[in-house]
Amino acid sequence: MCHRLQLQSTIVTKLRSRHFPFLSRYTPARVSFSSFSCGRDLQMEEGKVALDLLVADPALLEKKIEAIRLAGPQKLQVIADFDATLTKFWVNGTRGQSSHGLLQQGNPEYDAKRQQLYEYYHPLEFSPTIGLEEKTKLMEEWWGKTHGLLVEGGLTYESIRQSVANANIAFREGVSELFEFLEERDIPVLIFSAGLADIIEEVLRQKLHRSFKNVRIVSNRMVFDDGGHLVSFKGKVIHSLNKNEHALDMAAPVHERLGYVDGPIDDNASIKKRTNVLLLGDHIGDLGMSDGLNYETRISMGFLNHNIENSLSCYREAFDVVFVNDAPMWEVIKLVSRMCSSGR
Ligand SMILES: [Mg+2]
Description:
Elements: H1 2-19, E1 53-55, H2 58-71, E2 76-81, E3 90-91, E4 94-95, H3 108-125, H4 132-152, H5 157-166, H6 175-184, E5 189-196, H7 197-208, E6 215-224, E7 230-234, H8 243-246, E8 252-253, H9 255-258, H10 268-273, E9 276-281, E10 297-303, H11 308-318, E11 321-323, H12 330-339
Parallel strand pairs: 2-5, 2-9, 5-6, 9-10, 10-11
Antiparallel strand pairs: 1-11, 3-4, 6-7, 6-8
Helix pairs in contact: 2-12, 3-4, 5-7, 6-12
The structure holds magnesium ion.
The site of magnesium ion (MG) has 6 residues, from loops.
């Protein structure tokens, strides 16, 4: 297993330099599998294997890039998951917080109640013995109860602001530059999440220090009263197992909250006309984010954050490009710039 992985890396490195000359100045990765299942045998010397990026079928990827390039940027949209895709998996040496996990509602009793729900439902979410239908019901139950506790516990917008300020959460390097590149070309970015839209917007505001008129959040959205107290949630609950069903219908412009009033925003209909997709996710299930779209060409990029040894072959089959080692977005930007270039 270990030798195979090392061999794969070598092959990919060779393929990469042959097919992706733009990746040749690529920083050798910090690679250590010591915390994963293979233990010490898999420990690799620092900088020995460049493994940040893996492409299973370079020729197919080239073909897709060319198809997207020929169709032009007006046909392209980006669909991205939020937690551990746009944000880093490791932050300050520990597991980064998720948009849901970071929330402290300023009421210890209710924070504890939500934690109890997490401890009960989280193992069920990943249980191999529970069928999808039953699991979906359990997730609806979990999200419903959690949202109920947020209302009942008197969550305020100020608590969200404070929670984000205190959170151990960070964007991958290059996320801001990626959004900016896409904004300059009027390419929409839809961020799909089973978390909370209001928190994601606050994270964008506090961590990126700017807003983007091309970015929309598709997630659970809160309704606050004039005093800034949460009173309800808009629409149907989006949980981990149904987030793909709602996708395009629930897209709402992030600029509403961020004070942008200028510039045309694509409505959902025109988003559906953008038939080429760049999809970014960190779970195989994230591939379903483009299900509501009859896309012509899709390039999928997967961020494999943990259990790498066991999941690598599966991710390489599922995604056109796989990133490991909490990779920054620079290579994504390079690939996108090729999709948007006017000549070869
Ligand atoms: Mg995620």
